[in-house]
Amino acid sequence: MSSFVHLHTHSYYSLLDGIPSPEDLLLAAKKQGMKALALTDHNGLYGAVEFYQKALEYKIKPIIGAELTLADGFNLMLLVKDAGGYRNLCRLISKGRLNGGHIGFKLHLKDFTGSSEGLICLSGGHKGKINHLLKKRHADEAVLYLRKLSDLFGEDIYLEMQHFSSHDSLVNIRLRDLAVENKIPLVATNDVHFVSNKDWYLRRIMHAIDANTVLEKTATAGTSEQYLKNSDLMHDLFNSFPGVVQ
Predict the structure, then answer these.
(1) % of the chain at pLDDT higher than 90
(2) Global pTM value
(3) Are 170 and 197 a contacting pair, CB within 8 Å?
């Protein structure tokens, strides 16, 4: 499990959502002996250059990506494989900004046509449409959506599995079955938004500011489990799912 890599990771460039700087994330990863780390902020690449440069300083392989918001309200995770993929991700982000208007962001699956080469797609975890459909027991719809993603990304598609509480176990079993039946690999992520679980309080404050409400009424800030967990903890979470890419 020493080769575990966090592939779904947010910095403070996920505005009013992520807590750490790109360097904070890299320092934590280096302390844990990790050889690589992804930065996947929401709908942007604002921290990509800073992250890349600092990663090289710390001798950690940088993986550039972004979590993109689709028009249906669900998310997809994209990771860059090469220079062409970076250009395509920039193109998609620009298109999402243009489609979304002044402060919005909106992409349709059709927008990925011709712009998917050089990119790896993760299904989005808790905020992805596939998780939502499986939670609702709409397995047939999940299969159809997965096929659409496969048509766009070919073999560069992974089902993203997350585990923050016991309530996630059933959906993860359904994800495992979907992966086996459709020969799609699974990948474990933790939707990281802070380095330590103690920082969840700060994320809740930022969500309250964003919603213009009080802290007690904030229910959108996820859980305290969304921190940069070490390899052993991630292994313990997913050791009942053999074959998960970690």
Answers:
(1) 91
(2) 0.95
(3) no
